[in-house]
Amino acid sequence: MAQDWRLFQGGDTRPHEVQTWPPAPPWRRFGDDARRRDKERPLPYLISDEDRDVVNMALHLHRPLLVTGRPGTGKSTLAHAIARELMLGEVLHWPVNSRSTLTEGLYSYDAVGRLREASLKRRADETAGTEPDIGDYLRLGALGTALLPAEKPRVLLVDELDKGDVDLPNDLLTVFEEGEFEIPELARLGKGETVHVQYAGSREKVGITSGWVSCSVFPVVVITSNGEREFPPAFLRRCVRLDLKQPDEAQLRQIVTMHLGEEVGARAQELIADFVSRRNERELATDQLLNAVRLRSSGVRVDQDVLDKLFRSLNEVDAQ
Ligand SMILES: Nc1ncnc2c1ncn2[C@@H]1O[C@H](COP(=O)(O)OP(=O)(O)O)[C@@H](O)[C@H]1O
Ligand SMILES: [Mg+2]
């Protein structure tokens, strides 16, 4: 007999092993599992012809693409879709928060760690002059890594820039215009000095000379915003802007079919219609629909009023 879909029972249930863990939805796979999925059947991305052309303009102009839209409209996923289709490697992800600074995006330097190591070495009475290598304590961030010289552009996702400090867009602007930056800690070592430092998403190191990083091809920069803050005109002027609309019923059906197959898509019509009518009243995101359809289609027998809890509004005001 198949195990109860309720893995967790609560109450005084005795601890028990889960015989088979429920398989992950295609979009919740990680590590090797995700890499295998991307090779065999990559997650599809639905985009209108018009929006697709805006993306292509940004690619041709070597300009950042500023993507706005309600939560769940596929802003972050767009960066991954571009990287996958154009075989540009892993997306360099910079999730912006209120404490994010330009320097954090470029690089981080663990000065304290290096000092500690130096004093340990001295105490261990090692030969003088064996200062710990500065390259072991310096790491390029997502933005810094995207600006490394390379044959093909990397994809950089500056996610939710509107969550950042007011000055961050303008700080970014300078780097995006110049395509280069200096690491003062390395520049101080002298002209022509090469240091090997770590960089984002890799265990390898890259040589940086005279503390200067300069890109050879501008990265594919995707900046997302939920519209919590307006950006200054000087910033907007230098980006190509894309406003993603909420998908309509037919598009939702396509997204469901692309993620879960033709058969599931056909059976989900009612759920999709229900989702759309609720979305007219409150804030709902596409992933909430995908979750509901996935649960339904994986044979989980959950009552409608429990399933409804997946369609809770993203906006607390609506919920009252
Ligand atoms: N146009 C689309 N095509 C395919 N999947 C989509 C699309 N829009 C949203 N999704 C799905 O919805 C989920 C949320 O998308 P996400 O990119 O995280 O939204 P946002 O960044 O705009 O909040 C993802 O799991 C994605 O697979
Ligand atoms: Mg997002």
Automatic annotation (TrEMBL):
Annotated CDD domains: AAA
Give positions of region: Disordered.
1-34
Note the superkingdom of the native organism: Bacteria
Q: Where is the AAA+ ATPase domain?
A: 61-248
The protein in question is named MoxR family ATPase
Species assigned in the record: Streptomyces rugosispiralis
